[in-house]
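Reminder to self: tokens first, then the designed residues, so the page reads top to bottom the way the pipeline ran.
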């Protein structure tokens, strides 16, 4: 899993039918310090995340697992909303 911040939503009027009723969000991967770590990407949302929230993102085939047995052709998926991160120093 990777931490990310939701920075926007994505609207696609033409898409694979398996994406019907699935929210697409633009996420910015972040490090433990909250700083940007990589390039933004589109992720399917299974938890109802919103802009500004920190989330857990999974990559690869696991991204579509929350919709099993429907196969969702996604390579990034939001699977959790982060409440708090504590890094001891």
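Designed residues (89 positions):
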């Amino acid at each position: 899993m990777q931490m990310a911040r939701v920075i926007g939503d994505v609207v696609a009027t033409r898409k694979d039918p398996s994406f019907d009723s699935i929210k697409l969000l633009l996420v910015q991967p972040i490090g433990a310090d909250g700083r940007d770590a990589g390039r933004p990407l589109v992720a399917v949302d299974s938890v109802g995340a919103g802009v500004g929230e920190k989330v857990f993102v999974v990559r690869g085939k696991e991204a579509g697992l929350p919709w099993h047995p429907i196969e969702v052709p996604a390579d990034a998926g939001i699977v959790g909303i982060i409440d708090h991160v504590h890094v001891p120093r």
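The two ends are 22 Å apart (CA to CA).
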